[in-house]
Amino acid sequence: MISLSMFRGVWRYRGFVLGSVKREFQSKYRNSLFGALWTVLNPLAMITVYTVIFSEVMGSRLQGVNSTFAYSIYLCAGALTWGLFAEITTRAQTVFIENANLIKKLQFPRICLPIIVVLNACVNFAIIFGLFTAFLVWSGHFPGAVYLLLFPVLALQILFSIGLGMVLGVLNVFFRDVGQFFGILLQFWFWFTPIVYPATALPKAVRELLVFNPMAAVIGAYQTILVHGRAPDWAGMLPIAILTVLCCVMGLLLFRKRSGEMVDEL
């Protein structure tokens, strides 16, 4: 089994993986005055801006939801989770290039590198989303037990992100234009996903194209749970679940086939 042999190696090098995650987190704030406090201040500032600017100053509202904070929750639910997707895919596509010296000098399972990317992104996301959850509780908009449905959606998103990221990461070693192209694509992808606007604001012809946007279903699931307090449309997420499996399998196969050649290219 491809994945079994790979992840046995990861387990043997778990100290290296966890140590790398810890070092990267510490290095981000090593020479700053407030240190790790910035992990709280940055997302707190984001949530405050979304709440004050959009809910109070601009008076933004969502149709069918009678709440002052509804739009800011809708916006945070989309923007924060999109940030996780963007961080994993963007970092995964350059992870082998950025660690070229490490790959050439040390013998270790190179699959550890994408896993380190995922763990680092998840640590950052846990802090940010934890603060957002505290805001939901404070504002009286915590959705209750349906909140637990976020976890399968989150797991699906992470798997899709790293599957896509690994495909891009391997291809980017051999074709450096891949990284440049994806950076541009990601900007268009963001605006084609209902994050800062509801899907109902789009013309009908454009709205029908959202079925081809896998992140629209994921972001919509988060927004349904957090804004409306109900379960998402699981049937509507079947296409991205299939795409996730394909991306993960393709990423692992591509990595296994080309990992030996990457050293020469790097």
UniProtKB/TrEMBL annotation:
Annotated TM spans: 32-54, 69-90, 111-138, 144-171, 178-197, 234-255
**Its membrane topology, per UniProt?**
Multi-pass membrane protein
Q: Which domain of life is it from?
A: Bacteria
Family assignment? Belongs to the ABC-2 integral membrane protein family.
Q: Which organism is it from?
A: Massilia aquatica
Keyword annotations for this protein, in alphabetical order, are: Capsule biogenesis/degradation, Cell membrane, Membrane, Polysaccharide transport, Sugar transport, Transmembrane, Transmembrane helix, Transport
Keyword Membrane set for record: yes
Among InterPro entries, the record links this protein to: ABC2_TM, ABC2_TM_bact-type, ABC_2_transport
Task: Name where it's found.
Answer: Cell inner membrane; Cell membrane
Q: What is this protein called?
A: Transport permease protein
